[in-house]
């Protein structure tokens, strides 16, 4: 295979009846069942309606291995260049996957690599369906979780200690200033220890991304920490957010009748359960990891979740399917068995990314198309046509044809309903 094939842009043929997208978007292809669904979405729901310049990068595990993961780095830099990336779900290999694909090494998560290069904040938001039962019944409107995807437990140094001993931690300034040294604990026996960190620069970027997202959504913003316990660590998050708010966002928030508030994480969790939705919740790394899944499941399905990565200045976005590659269904597909795989999060990756392209370009026709496609997905499910994962949330025993559709049938229903809505 040509090692540079992923750099070749794909220019769709011009059709005057299509919506013209002035600037390119970066497409990041993926793996397994989601890759198959991804192609249908492009061929049936996107390309027939848009005249668009796609910068294509193949992030399938085989090609990442062939390029020594350079394709992921190049794709992330392309997103920085063009402002919008749209990503299919990808495999993050473990030992079994290394063996399965005969990989050169256990490559890092593409999402993590892209996050580090873009320095963005991940925002996750449920796709609300009226007929999908909610585990939290009073959640009637979406909740947008902003996750600070940097540092903390995910970049921590942790280790096992043996026997008696003293644990200390030291910071040595590079400029020759005085060391800071702290005694953490005197162990009387075996134990464990952990040291973690964050940076002002990353927290400032996180704050700006969250304030910009709240303004975009026209929803209030809440930051949750445990600053009563971690007075210096979490206190730094609280202080930086407040400072950025006062200096950069307060006037615009007040002009839009929006509020910002810091709350303790335990109080915020309790409040979120009783509120109805329509707010942005800024979470530290671990909290965001947990709460985004809590919110997704609370609204009825982990498969009904959007995920976007936004840079601090709000000028670059990567939208992705907020789930894995659905390996179990892919095995069935390989064996020639029918599958009922939910494509909605993948469709919303395209709509959220393209809507952002529309906002950047002031292309209202493109924004309207994206909203129409999202409405079609919701209306199709609410009409009773859905995949098996959604059907079993409504009733425990389901039958194909009566209660749910196979993957291709559901996608065909969306295709048909989109044509009706757009008068095609």
Outline the structure in words.
This protein has 424 residues and is an alpha/beta fold. 43% of the residues lie in helices and 20% in strands. Strands 1-5-3-6-17-16-7-8-15-13-14 form an eleven-stranded mixed beta sheet, with helices on both faces. Strand 10 and strand 11 form a beta hairpin. The longest helix has 23 residues. The radius of gyration is 23 Å and the shape is globular.
The percent of residues in helical segments reads 40-55%
What is the end-to-end distance? 39 Å
Question: Average pLDDT across residues?
Answer: 91
Task: Quote the beta fraction.
Answer: 15-25%
Main sheet overview: 11 strands, mixed
Question: Which regions contain 5 or more consecutive residues with pLDDT less than 50?
Answer: 1-15
Given the helix and strand composition, which structural class is it?
alpha/beta
Task: Please work out how many helical segments DSSP would assign.
Answer: 14
User: How many β-strand stretches?
Assistant: 17
Spatial strand sequence of the major β-sheet: 1-5-3-6-17-16-7-8-15-13-14
What keywords describe this structure?
two-stranded parallel sheet, eleven-stranded mixed β-sheet, globular, about 425 residues, alpha/beta, disordered N terminus
Q: What would a concise description of this structure say?
A:
The chain has 424 residues and is an alpha/beta fold. The chain has helices at 32-46, 61-66, 70-82, 95-100, 110-118, 200-217, 233-255, 265-274, 285-298, 327-334, 344-361, 364-382, 388-394, 407-422; strands at 9-11, 19-20, 25-29, 50-51, 53-58, 84-87, 121-126, 143-147, 157-161, 165-171, 180-187, 191-195, 221-225, 260-264, 279-283, 305-310, 317-321.
